[in-house]
């Protein structure tokens, strides 16, 4: 019979790691849906060049696949609009909890300067020739990047 196609067993095989990674990415996107409902732009992509990124307790090496989740708010033209970290902080914390040991780091951009966020949401700001730990809640940010391993 010409119209019946035959399949090999390999045609149905899917690497279990790919399935788990796909589920993880879908879950991360689902957690961020409420941000999109609130007018934020959420994008998700492979973080090329993330090798060597310092996280809180681990280092990324060449065998790791690192994803970057970007959160911003569109402004006039192609610009981004500032927003309070507290507007997205609850979702970011939920993502950190969900990702667990796969979570690497969070970076925020304030006035075109990038800062790495500590686990308890502090950034280091230079004040009168010394570094001061300051809670991120006090600042308006215009871009957030969350890095995690697959």
Q: Short description, anyone?
A:
The chain has helices spanning 16-31, 33-37, 89-99; strands at residues 40-46, 66-73, 83-84, 103-110, 113-117, 122-127, 130-135, 140-141, 143-149. It is α+β, with helices and mostly antiparallel strands. The longest helix is centred in the first third of the chain and has 16 residues, at 16-31.
Features:
9 strands; two-stranded antiparallel ribbon; alpha+beta; 150 residues; 21% helix; single chain
Structural notes for this entry:
With 150 residues, the chain is an alpha+beta fold. The protein has one domain (14-149). Helix content is 21%, strand content 34%. The protein is built from three helices and nine strands, in the order ααβββαββββββ. β6 (122-127) and β7 form a beta hairpin. The protein is globular, with a radius of gyration of 19 Å. The protein starts with 15 loop residues before the first helix and ends with a strand. The model has no long low-confidence stretch (mean pLDDT 79).
Helix content: 10-25%
Please state the average pLDDT score.
79
Alpha-carbon Rg, integer: 19 Å
Helix/strand order? HHEEEHEEEEEE
The beta-strand count equals 9
Approximate strand percentage: 25-35%
With helices defined by DSSP (H or I, 4 residues minimum), what is the helix count? 3
- Biggest sheet, open or closed, and with what strands and sense? 5 strands, antiparallel
